[in-house]
Amino acid sequence: ETPPRAVPRNTWCGSSFAYADSRMGVVSPGPVPSRAFGGYSKIWGAAVLAPDPADLAAWPADVRRGLDAALGRASAILPSPAADLPYGAQMAALRAASAVVDPQGDVLRPARLAVARADCTACAMCLSGCPYGAIFDAAPRLEALAREGRIKLRRGVFVTDLVEDRSAVVVRGVELDGGRRFEARHTRVFLAAGALATTRIVLRTKGLFGVEARLKDSQKILMPILRVSAPADALEDRGVTLAGLFVDPQVPAGFARRPHLQITGINPMLLAHLGIGPAPSRGRLRRRLLGPLLARLMVGWGGLHSDYSGMLTLSVSPGGDLGDVATVRTLPNPQALSAA
Q: Whole-model pTM?
């Protein structure tokens, strides 16, 4: 199992089913592939933002053009980012203040989220699993495509490797219920299992056991933000608890890339981590003592460019119930601390 961590993982109604673990042949103290139907879209923060062109300057031109086209197609699938999502009083006050402040080289903008405004009831459960389906989830989209006959779904299987011959590509794997091996022949295969799982499949397909593949990463930072004032009902008011403000600070001296920051307000997940609520009797004294501080506390979730982030290594070794074990490790980058 994945060891405990200081920053809690986002779960779906308390379940960590979206994360692969040792039962799926993954050993990792950090990032793991998703095991959910729909992947990490089951628990994502719904932020929608195209990459800054400056961050892609080193990419081949044809790849950049292909990415632009893909982002355009993706935007047609996602809900149109709403400008009037019902944030709570704390975030509403911050967004109002950001609209009149002089950014002095920073870029401040309201967050763009893939949330269907018409389905949002401001229940404040965004980070616990939206009960109304307002946050985009890939699973219903895939099920709709299957009902329309545009794709065929095969669930409950674990793909291990691919075998090519002159006439077909054979997809091989294991049925998770019972452990039976299966093979499926296709004219061609588009492998898109996410960075970690795709790398795992490729390494096993090529027989590269024990070889470490290196993957670039966007390292994340957690930044507490304390405001001077706070709305009186900051801890009581309900509303959207996803990111409400995007901040791209000016490029630090000695660096060529902007970091990116998404600011969220106080939310039930953070309060629960502190032993407060949601039942009024839970953490009542703690809420009373920490209330003035928590009402002013907001959180910045930052992402660093891969140039300044650590890397991931992934290697595959034979064994385990599914035929191999994937080990993911992190390689620190000394520039990460300076950039953060």
A: 0.84
